[in-house]
Write a structure and sequence with these properties.
The protein has three helices and three strands; from the N terminus they run E-E-E-H-H-H. It has about 120 residues and is of the alpha+beta class. It has two domains: about 60 residues, 2-Layer Sandwich (Double Stranded RNA Binding Domain), CATH 3.30.160; about 40 residues.
Length: about 120
């Protein structure tokens, strides 16, 4: 299916389908649309239902002059982000990095990937 910039391909969004014990059904969610979900008795039906809902929501957004979110998979990332931490945590991380013989950036990256 050919998509334009106004109507993103809903299959490119980031989905998760999990079991909801509370609802006794599967629930499909989309990271780019955190307020939307779809319940169904099977994983496939939950995902398909949410995709139909997203097509309708995106059509409504376009009709109202709003822009649909770009799928995470189609966004560009620099590989950099700034994080502000308190002075004492900064000092603690810097000391731990030095004790491990690595830069603060390498140390934090290692800790993040291990989490």
């Amino acid at each position: 299916m050919i998509q334009d910039n106004v109507h993103p391909d809903v299959t490119h969004y980031t989905y998760r389908v999990t079991w909801s014990a509370e609802d006794d059904e599967f629930v499909a969610t989309c990271a780019e649309f955190p307020s939307l979900s779809w319940l169904a008795p099977s994983q496939v039906e939950a995902l398909q239902g949410l995709e139909v809902l997203l097509r309708e929501v995106i059509a409504d957004m376009v009709e109202q002059g709003e822009q649909a979110p770009q799928p995470f998979a189609e966004r560009s990332y620099s590989g950099k982000f700034n994080l502000r931490v308190g002075e004492s945590l900064h000092r603690e991380l810097a000391m731990q990095a030095a004790e491990d013989g690595m830069s603060l950036n390498q140390y934090v990256l290692r800790r993040l990937t291990a989490a």
